[in-house]
UniProtKB/TrEMBL annotation, chains A, B:
Protein name: Putative hydro-lyase EV688_101224
Domain of life: Bacteria
UniProt-listed Enzyme Commission number(s): 4.2.1.-
Pfam (any one): D-Glu_cyclase
Family stated for the protein in its record: Belongs to the D-glutamate cyclase family.
Gene3D superfamilies the record matches: PSTPO5379-like, PSTPO5379-like domain
One GO MF term attached to the UniProt entry: lyase activity
Species name: Chromatocurvus halotolerans
Keyword Zinc-finger part of the UniProt annotation: no
HAMAP family: Hydro_lyase
Family matches, as InterPro entries: D-Glu_cyclase (IPR009906), Putative_hydro-lyase (IPR038021), UPF0317 (IPR016938)
Top EC group: lyase
Alphabetized UniProt keyword annotations: Lyase
SUPFAM superfamilies: PSTPO5379-like (SSF160920)
Amino acid sequence: MPDTHSPHAIRARIRNGEHSGNTSGLAPGFVQCNLVILPQAHAHDFLRFCQANPRPCPLIAMNPSPGDPTLPALGDIDIRRDVPRYRVFESGRAGDDTADIQSLWREDLVVFALGCSFSFEEALLADGLDVRNVSEGVNVPMYRTNTPCTPAGPFSGNMVVSMRPFLAADAIRAIQICTRFPSVHGAPVHLGDPSAIGIGDLSRPDFGDSVSVKQREMPVFWACGVTPQVALENARLPFAITHSPGCMLVTDMRNSQLAIL
Amino acid sequence: MPDTHSPHAIRARIRNGEHSGNTSGLAPGFVQCNLVILPQAHAHDFLRFCQANPRPCPLIAMNPSPGDPTLPALGDIDIRRDVPRYRVFESGRAGDDTADIQSLWREDLVVFALGCSFSFEEALLADGLDVRNVSEGVNVPMYRTNTPCTPAGPFSGNMVVSMRPFLAADAIRAIQICTRFPSVHGAPVHLGDPSAIGIGDLSRPDFGDSVSVKQREMPVFWACGVTPQVALENARLPFAITHSPGCMLVTDMRNSQLAIL
């Protein structure tokens, strides 16, 4: 049987232009990462931003040195070609998405691979919980909060959170499960009253799609990987690259390896 | 310096009639237990009840054999004299409290020592959380729920819960902390809307005292050690003995020994 579902095989297809879309559901069991690529001049500040805000910005790996396009900690990766779609920022503004950044590569670029909610959603689903954005087949709803991140250099902004509704007993279970995975956002940061963190209307997310909240369910909020993208826009760097939303870096690391216990 | 604060010294004072009241705050760091003493004829059913309902009835230790008044797993204990006040039940009805059950002791009595919320409250306080019943100096509020326990023989009844209010972020932290201590009720069983578990009015607890719930706080509910007392009353046994509320068995076991990780 040919190897078509391994992270290695999926990255090969992406590299060859055979897959250019969403990575949701690909290579089940393996970590997918948010991606931020910055010139070295700003890398130290961004690293400090991640260190100071680990819930929204859980750093899993970096390239060994500036300009090196590999991520040996996560697999045989060429970061210039192994993500289905990239988003290029100039002066803090997103330009067109592109499937390949070889022509944009520079010797001063630093790569940050950050944890992503796909990993903890898999753990919640494996426990039998109903992850509403999955069962309704939409993107998770995300909201800007009034909770400021700790700034670092030019990087600042309020935390963005994702929301999944649960009955109280399932919310407690979700907290227990996600506590095991601090490097993919960890335990929720809030639950219950959305206005307590500055969210006005759950049915109107700032990013992603709305999901239904059933009777007796409460909204549960996790720190979200869109937070570093917002910080990146606020920083108005001359040049930066991220993944395109939903088109993540598929790695050889297993989700179970991220469990702290 | 004389040994006055060790569990051994406290039990000696209780045994000598020098302390007959509440044990709250005594021997910090050490486990205190709820106590149930039953004739052997009903002990197997009660043990099954504990096994089937571990959240409200977390069994920590039993006497080595019926009629044996010691609990070697918990210290040099004479269970007939080492609890400040006992409550004696006849046909499911509580009679007078007594400081000594030597005259009531029988060769068929089985002793159950159950985990108590004092242990997890200590862990919450050590983490800097405001445990409202402690900061307000009252008994924790307790409520009858509409959640039935799994019955076993004559033992049945709805779960009783204790309530402590927290801000959402502190509630999440409390869930993480208490998850480490399954043998003292473990993680909360509910949070948020009291009516979801059949509680009408938070300001009117069925047992204990009411506490203030501040703005933005949510009620967090734990399975409570009063549950086995209710099951005992429902069973209408000819004869049973428990501790008197708040007057617990002070043991040599450290709270930290109960942490599963």
